[in-house]
Amino acid sequence: MAARKSNAAVKAAQQESPVDKVIGLIKWVDNPFKLFTVLIIATFSFVGFFAWESREVIKSAFTANDKLASLKSEADLLDISTALIKESGGEVAVVHQANLMINKRTTVLAADKNGRNKSVEGTVTSIFNESLDRNKAVVAMLNGEVLCEDFKASSKVGEWFVNNGVTYVCRGSIPPEIGKLVGYISVGFKSKPDDVNSVKVIINQYAAKMVILK
User: Is residue 188's pLDDT more than 80?
Assistant: First the structure.
């Protein structure tokens, strides 16, 4: 009898229309975490990439949201970013504030060799989007890595990078610890640095200075 009921349930599920399945998914999404999970899956499905091996790191980043550090003041971030540009040999540096729970990225500070540039500050976009390069970078940063690669613009900020001659970018988590991303720093270069590993170390050192620990 139980087996018949089970078979009937399976057949009923198989007969559900796409609309029924969508309605069922909507009913299942009853909190921000589930919503963001759906967004992540949909985004990575669209670009053909999903970092399944990083699922625990992403999950821990969500659950530790209330324990994260906070970014320092804009004045402090400017001083640190300016020093980072000089030591790394970069052209520009941008600090983004990140909110993984709602897939939101806000550009809080942008600087070049001449100082602060407010033209792209305040720009709000998604953390994960249709750009495979950015999605890969975010997953790497959640794993405590600095990802360096050839650059392609996928946002207004990216276009500003290109206008400054940037062809290569390194991105690092703020702070640099695994699963504690509250923001991230992007440093743009006109060409690939001779010693990328040294640049990664420098970025992590400066990223650690950009936060106030709770």
Answer: yes
Closest to 158 (Cα-Cα) out of 133, 193, 183, 194:
133
Answer for the pair 40, 183: CB distance below 8 angstroms, yes or no. no
Q: How far apart are CA 125 and CA 155, in angstroms?
A: 8
CATH topology of domain 67-212: Beta-Lactamase (3.30.450)
Among candidate residues 98, 104, 97, the one with its CA nearest the CA of residue 36: 104
> Which pTM value belongs to this model?
0.71
**Closest among 161, 143, 128, 126 to 204, alpha carbons compared:** 143
Among all chains, which residue has been given the structure tokens 């495979």? 132
Write the pLDDT tens digit of every residue in 18-70: 445 444 544 544 555 555 555 555 554 444 344 444 555 555 555 555 556 78
Q: How far is CA 198 from CA 88, 103, 148, in A?
A: 8, 30, 12
Q: Where are the domains of the chain?
A: 67-212
179: left (phi over 0), alpha (psi -120 to 50) or beta: left
Phi-psi sector, 96: left (phi>0), alpha (psi -120 to 50), beta: beta
The token pair that represents 22 in the structure block: 């969508």
